[in-house]
Amino acid sequence: MTSKSTIIEVRDLTVGYGDRTILHDVSFAVQRGEILFILGGSGSGKSTLLKHMIGLYEPTTGQVSIDGLDLVGAGPEQRRQILRKIGVAYQSGALFGSMTLGDNIKLPLEAFTHLPPSAMTEIAQRKLGLVGLHDALDLMPNELSGGMVKRAAIARAMALDPAILFLDEPSAGLDPVTSAELDDLICGLSRDLNITFVVVSHELASIFAISDRVIMVDKVTQGIIADGVASDLRDHSELPAVRHFFNRQPAT
């Protein structure tokens, strides 16, 4: 990491659906350039936490700050300013099947800029090149392998040169080799562009390979039960639930 400054701060966040609380009073910070993984068992709230961090849902209470700006309390114009700082790649890729990769990547540019079409095409080509899809501008999503779909989704998430990329289960459905190649891509983008990554995942190979730090949320406590370096938590955590997770051991 090239800087130690805080780029994301989650403070006293409580989230849920209706009367059901998923996470209660959660607080943590993410440092600029960090690769942070959010972990937890099924139903623990890790994807719910990510959705609140990108402003898809309003929390019951609490605050999410992106680069010093309060996302929760932002008005329309400030919210637009904040959302330009982030990019999101979803588990399925969420590419529009009726559009080429180039047109998919142009969507954020059309929504947030007034660039001419030629400049948008040039940016789309550049972003695809960054993820190793140099000749894919005119391909349709159904012409891609699973790994290529993930890369194209990351390219679209980078369209506006965000400081932060949020990835939801990026390795889901990929074979081990393709997953490792995606890990290398994430590391390269973090190193070369100083992008901060927040990754929701339960893939232990990726967690140990590329995370700078992890936080683990828990369904029972509705909060964070671990925060640190993955290998340290695996070997030294005092909580059985944490050790079981990192060592792939069934709960006893």
Low-confidence stretches: none
Radius of gyration: 18 Å
What is the count of structural domains? 2
Can you give the mean pLDDT?
A: 91
Which structural class do the helices and strands define? Answer: alpha/beta
The end-to-end distance, rounded to whole angstroms, is 38 Å
How many H/I helical runs? 9
The strand line-up of the biggest sheet is 6-7-8-3-9-10
Report the major sheet.
6 strands, mixed
Write the H/E string, N to C. EEEHEEHEHHHEHEHEEHH
**Which CATH architecture of the largest domain would you pick?**
3-Layer(aba) Sandwich
User: CATH top level of the largest domain?
Assistant: Alpha Beta
Query: How many β strands by DSSP?
Result: 10
User: Any idea of the CATH topology of the largest domain?
Assistant: Rossmann fold
What coarse outline follows from CA principal-axis ratios? globular
CATH H-level superfamily of the largest domain = P-loop containing nucleotide triphosphate hydrolases
Strand residue percentage: 25-35%
Report helical residue fraction. Answer: 25-40%
